Amino acid sequence: MDRTRLHALLNRESAEAERRNPRSRAAYARADHLFGRVPMTWMNKTAGGFPRYLAGARGARVTDADGHEYLDFCLGDTGAMAGHSPAAVTEAVHLRYARLGGATAMLPTEDAEWVGAELTRRFGLARWSFSLTATDANRWAIRLARAVTGRPKILVNSYCYHGSVDESLIVTGPDGTGTARPGNVGAPCDVTLTSRVAEFNDLAGLERELAHGDVAAVLMEPALTNIGIVLPEPGYLEGVRELTRRYGTLLINDETHTFSAGPGGCTAAWDLEPDLLTIGKAIGGGIPAGAYGLSAELADRLLTRTDLDLVDMGGVGGTLAGNALSVAATRATLEHVLTDEAFARMGVLAERFEAGVLAGIGAHRLPWSVSRLGARTEYRFTSPAPRNGTESAQAADPELEDFLHLYLANRGILLTPFHNMALMCPDTTAADVDTHTEVFAAALAELAG
Ligand code: PMP
Predict the structure, then answer these.
(1) Neighbours of 3 (CB within 10 A)
(2) Which of 70, 148, 234, 403 has a CA that sits 20 to 30 A from residue 217's CA?
(3) What is the rounded CA–CA span in Å between residue 187 and residue 169?
């Protein structure tokens, strides 16, 4: 990679982004009352120095404040995997909020049992409870796991992401032991007091940590998706299940992103048997919703414990969790939008996307790799594909990533910030994918000079 050339191209694309987006730039400049000028500080993670402001979005298309339309492969980093404002969810939300009325009343609706049964059909876990975010689903699953095992620690994979969960902000240091993830904001205590860590795809490392006998649960994605996609090697997930059982540790699968693997995520696609499962983002069709599932046996053990306050202020739950609006949106999403056959179509499109990226990489003999997880594809600036989070973190190239994001955005294509990730939704078309293939090839040709 000619860095001087990359630098010049990045400057050219940044200037073009400024020229194309005067309204977004002005809105950002005016946002004096927002912490970091944005509604949420991570919105500053955008190539080009300012975010595009949203005007509207429908299906696989987003329009910004300057009137540009984008093919959206970001899809709200999975929150809009159902497509933006799909008709069935729009109708369900309108019915619940406007026609019947009552978004949140501290009373259940029958939609919740429908959703619970559907989640059981898809993921296998017998009992379900709701949250508004995947982060909270993880927090509560962790608390339940500690309560039921009486053990203090949680084990995660290095460079995992499970939301802003204190216990998960640990990575393996150079000497192989756990250490705080760099940049951790205001940690409540030394993370090694609450957590253990192992590299993904490393069963020996996992066993070494579990052998201490103090791990309540392994919280993991069946494939890492937040440091590129890192796929499990043959036998790894079976090994995780065998070791967790042997050492009396519960297994929590976080399917928030790996849901892209199919209607029942990786858990169904690969016949996994977690004790708990967490999910959020996509299931609400854009309305905040999350859920966690647990086995009937675990649920019974928890519900019969008289020392646990599961009803009031015991640390599990939130006032708006399971509210009527979120649950209605989740039902509509699962019943009508992210259906079994929608996933089949999305998977085929992601294969097409992957083939297009591979063709571009091959044409320029770049040492890059592509990984796919059902409807989700990601390219990484290293080959072969990384085997664990630490390897993948080392392959990061922020400048190159910014160039590709800006080049694509300036030509009407959105990828997920933080990643080179593309997700298909039920409204994505083969023509959309081919447009990406063409623009990506043009970007690589410019890089090659
Ligand atoms: N789990 C995984 C695997 C995630 O990727 C994320 C967010 N990217 C979360 C949990 C947290 O989701 P939220 O920010 O909606 O709480």
Answers:
(1) 9
(2) 234
(3) 9
Which residues, including other chains, have CB under 8 Å from residue 172's CB and lie 6 or more apart? 158, 178, 179, 197, 198, 199, 205, 390
Q: Is 163 in the pocket of ligand 1 (CB under 6 A)?
A: yes
Provide the token pair at 333. Answer: 């999403």
Q: What is the CB neighbour count within 10 angstroms for residue 325?
A: 21
* Burial class for 40, CB neighbours closer than 10 Å (0-12, 13-18, 19+): exposed
- Which CATH architecture best describes the domain 3-81+340-448? Alpha-Beta Complex (3.90)
- Ligand 1 centroid to 180 CA: how many Å? 19
**Residue length of the chain:** 449
The confidence score (pLDDT) of residue 46 equals 86
Cis preceding linkage at 384, omega within 30: yes
Structure tokens that stand for 180 in this block: 């705080």
Beta carbon of 139 within 6 Å of any ligand 1 atom = no
Which tokens sit at 134?
A: 């995947």
State percent of the chain over pLDDT 70: 100
| Domain coordinates in residue numbering, the chain | 3-81+340-448, 87-337
Alpha helix segments (H runs only) across 247-323: 265-269, 296-303
CA dihedral 294, 297, 299, 300 (to 10 degrees): 170
Beta strand 413-414 pairing with 421-423: unpaired
48 pLDDT tier (thresholds 50, 70, 90): confident
Distance CA 418, CA 76 (A): 12
Tell me if 257 CB under 6 Å of ligand 1: yes
CA–CA dist 182, 163 (Å, integer): 15
What would the pLDDT profile of 276-318 be if each residue is shown by its tens digit?
Answer: 999 999 999 999 999 999 999 999 999 999 999 999 999 999 9
Q: Whose CA is nearest to atom 1 of ligand 1?
A: 162
Q: Answer whether 133 contacts ligand 1 (Cβ < 6 A).
A: yes
Distances in whole angstroms, Cα of residue 347 to Cα of each of 250, 375, 425: 31, 4, 9
Which helix (H) or strand (E) is 437 found in, with range? helix 430-448
Strand order in the sheet with 421-423: 369-373, 376-380, 421-423
**Which CATH architecture does the domain made up of 87-337 adopt?**
3-Layer(aba) Sandwich (3.40)
